[in-house]
Amino acid sequence: MAIRYDKDSHGIVLLTIDMPDRSANVLNEVFFKAFIEVLDKFEADKSATGAIFVSGKKLWIAGADIDTSFSSVDPAYFFEMSERLKKDLRRLETIGKPVVAALNGTALGGGLEVALACHHRVAINDDRIKFGFPEVGLGLLPGAGGVVRTVRLIGLQNAMEWLTQNKKYTPKDSLKAGMIHTLATDHDHLIAQANAWIKANPEGKAPWDADPRYRIPGGDPRNPKIAEMVFVAPAMIRKESKGIYPAPAAILAAAVEGAQVDFETASRIESRYFAKLASGAISHNMINAFWTQLNQIKKGQSRPQNVPPQPSKKVGVLGSGLMGHGIAYVTAAAGMEVVMTDKDQASADNGKQLIAAILKTQVERGSMPQEKAEGILSKIKATPDYGLLAGCDLIIEAVFENRELKASVTKAAEAAMDQAGVFASNTSTLPITGLAEASIRPEKFIGLHFFSPVHKMQLVEIIVGEKTDDETLAKAFDFVLSIGKVPIVVNDSRGFYTSRVFSTWSNEGLKMLLEGQHPHSLEMAGLQAGMPVGPLAVIDEISMGLFDHIRKQTLADMKASGEPDTRLAAAARGDHAAPVIEKMLSLKRPGRAGGGGFYEYTEKGKHLWPELTSIFMHGEPQLSQQEMIDRIVYIQAVETARCMEEGILRNTADANLGAIFGWGFAPQHGGPLQFINSCGLSAFVERARELATAYGERFEPPQLLIDMAAKGQIF
Question: Is residue 467 part of a domain?
Answer without folding.
Answer: yes
